[in-house]
Amino acid sequence: MKLIGIQNPPTSLKHRLGFLGPGLILSASIVGSGELIATTVLGAKAGFVTFWVILLSCLVKVAVQLEFGKNAILSGRPLMEEFNHFEGPRLGKANWAVWSVFALTLFKILQLGGMLGGASIILSLVFPPIPVAVWVVLSGLSLSLFVYKNKYFLIEKTATVLVFGFTIFTLVSLVALFFTPFAFSWEEVHSGLEFKLPREAIWVAIGAFGITGVASDEIIAYTYWCQEKGYSKYVGPNDGSEAWRNRADGWLRVMYLDSFLAMLVYTIVTAAFYLLGAAVLHGEESIPDGNDLILALAGIYTETLGTGAKLGYLAGGFFALYSSVFATLAYWSRLLPDVFAQFGWIKASKDRGKWVAILAWALPAIWALTFLFVKLPGVMIISGGVVGSVLLWVVVWAAIKFRAKNRSLKLLTGPWTEAFFWVSVAAILAVSVYGLSKLW
User: Fold this and answer.
1) What's the CA gap between 243 and 185, in Å, rounded?
2) Can you list the residues of the chain whose pLDDT is less than 50?
3) In 127-193, which ranges are continuous DSSP H helix?
4) For 34-46, how does the pLDDT look when each residue is reduced to its tens digit (9 = 90+)?
């Protein structure tokens, strides 16, 4: 959508829907390795009993994401520039927050290599004559072609197709389950909505909470998509007028709707993956790990419904993994130039487009080489979860600072939003502590 400067927000639901988009890119990023592999395994281990944890996880963490989106729209500044204004130690021109994001992002290279490798493994299962290594290279090249032109509308449209793909194939796989011996009943699903937590499922439930919903990466990325969509430019600089307040209130409501619909999409898909694991694998003595899980579930569909069902499940798995890597590439190619500008390495306004193009080609190559050398996608993906637990501390700190900074504007605030925010903060911090404890 072409930016045309300051404009009044849409007032009807129909017109607001025409300005959505950042949430679709967010959904493409969220539904990936965690939902496809880890969430399914958790359903397999805990059965239906912790289903409510999955739903709550997808809901409660949105509050922190909204604070980031709200600040991006009201300030109009790149996120790392905002981070660089936080108090605390500095190294060169940048402070601890900017350096932390940069360092932790680099540590997640291993995770992205594993996700790219996972998508390539699925392609090799569908097209066995072509080796995994070839699919890794081809997948990396396709990612670069989508992103290097630095066109927001292309990223949004591609994300829309990928989200549609994994949503349809995942739901079809779940419906197909009812025509197999693994069909489950409403009573079993209802048992997972009773807020019960058996002692033996406590740690599984905490792990599920940490894996699902928006994570630190997606929260940070959302600020770039809100600005590139044009929300901030439509609001314009704060001149203290009532007209500005009305515009800000209206465009924030568009952003809230965008976030809500994104939450609806990734919650449905995440719930579907969980139910697949709970219905098919719960009670099994040996649960496959990593990409073997994908092959095991696909094999079950083949035995009960035929080859077509297997291909449908694999297609959903590919869309989920590939979309997550795609959205991450689009995000990193914007985040890193933002970081470099704060370091004083580049001039943000002049060099940003060039660096987006460079990173669009360089990052997939690095991820592909990482996978080809390590070749352990499960371990690689899990490593990113540990790094994400550390990055959550920085994200929560920033969200608290943004909320305090924007409180005086009194835009979309109240006792319910205040309570929702602090519950979200407490939950995220608790989960990140758990994630760090697993490291040791």
Assistant:
1) 53
2) 1-3
3) 132-147, 152-176, 186-191
4) 666 667 777 777 7
